[in-house]
Amino acid sequence: MQELLAITKALSDPNRVRTLLALQGGELCVCQITELFGLAPSTISKHLSVLSHAGLVLSRKTERWVYYRLPDKSAPVVIREALDWVKKSMANTDVAAADARKLKIILKTDLTEICRRQCR
Amino acid sequence: MQELLAITKALSDPNRVRTLLALQGGELCVCQITELFGLAPSTISKHLSVLSHAGLVLSRKTERWVYYRLPDKSAPVVIREALDWVKKSMANTDVAAADARKLKIILKTDLTEICRRQCR
DNA sequence: ACTATATTTCGCCAAATAGCGAAATAATGT
DNA sequence: ACATTATTTCGCTATTTGGCGAAATATAGT
């Protein structure tokens, strides 16, 4: 029960759902997601912590950055099905499209440049 | 997005999840669910309203009672998949088993007797 | 019409949560 | 060693939410 509730609570915030959608294109570091949503780094970090605790994202630290990604096929069924459901439900929505467009621009920009904007 | 969030928010409360599981055996009226969870009728009513607003349950009023039930196959895919996911994830949990056991007893008891206990 | 009963709505309180900025932590570069 | 940078943790505030009881609503019985 707790596991399911951790997942549904994690999925009940728009910015966390948008984060999962953004990660479909591959891993992102915290400051890239921060740039995408225009929220404070601490806020994004908290959201990622909630998603991570629910098992909906995995992270990897390298150099100064922490990269978050969606779990792969080896993840528990309950997690994979939840993610598939979100992906499917949000496909072809305006929110997803707008985020994807903005993310494309962010990915073309130099990473340190993105981070500098957030951490001053 | 709003539709998905209505669903995930509805699913992020233990009593609402338990309600959905309880309805697997067929429709129940408010006072039966109230008896099952030992909460105030107004509280249960609110929970059912949230589930209903998300499309996760349907209701039917007859005589003095309002019966709530799970939607059938004709429900939107997003709803059916969410319900399947919950059912599957909660199958074989202690909570579900205990509720099922208590529900069995409640269903054997006369409906007016159940309601009288709640509404005094 | 009046009473009884099942449910919902409303007003309130306590607990949980999203947001921020500041401070702490961890890793890199000088 | 020290400064810089990316992320996290902490403390705070505003908002949301779950719970209750009382009042309102709706329906059935007398």
Provide structural commentary.
2 copies of one chain form a homodimer. With 120 residues, chain A is mainly α. Chain A has one domain (2-118): Winged helix-like DNA-binding domain superfamily/Winged helix DNA-binding domain (Arc Repressor Mutant, subunit A, Orthogonal Bundle), CATH 1.10.10. Helices cover 64% and strands 10% of the residues of chain A. The first copy, chain A, has helices at 2-10, 14-22, 30-37, 41-54, 77-90, 94-108, 111-118; strands at 28-29, 58-62, 65-69. Chain A has a 3-stranded antiparallel sheet with strand order 1-3-2. In chain A, helix 1 (2-10) packs antiparallel against helix 4 (41-54). The radius of gyration of chain A is 14 Å and the shape is globular. Chain A starts with a helix and ends with a helix. Chains A and B meet through helix 1 and helix 5 of A and helix 1 and helix 5 of B. Chain A binds a DNA duplex (30 and 30 nucleotides) through helix 4 and helix 7.
Describe the structure concisely.
The structure is a homodimer of 120-residue chains. Chain A is mainly alpha-helical.
Question: What is the strand and helix layout of this fold?
Answer:
The structure is a homodimer of 120-residue chains.
Chain A: H1 2-10, H2 14-22, E1 28-29, H3 30-37, H4 41-54, E2 58-62, E3 65-69, H5 77-90, H6 94-108, H7 111-118
Antiparallel strand pairs in A: 1-3, 2-3
Chain A binds a DNA duplex (30 and 30 nucleotides) through residues 9, 13, 15, 29-31, 39-47, 49, 61, 63-66, 112, 115-116, 118-119.
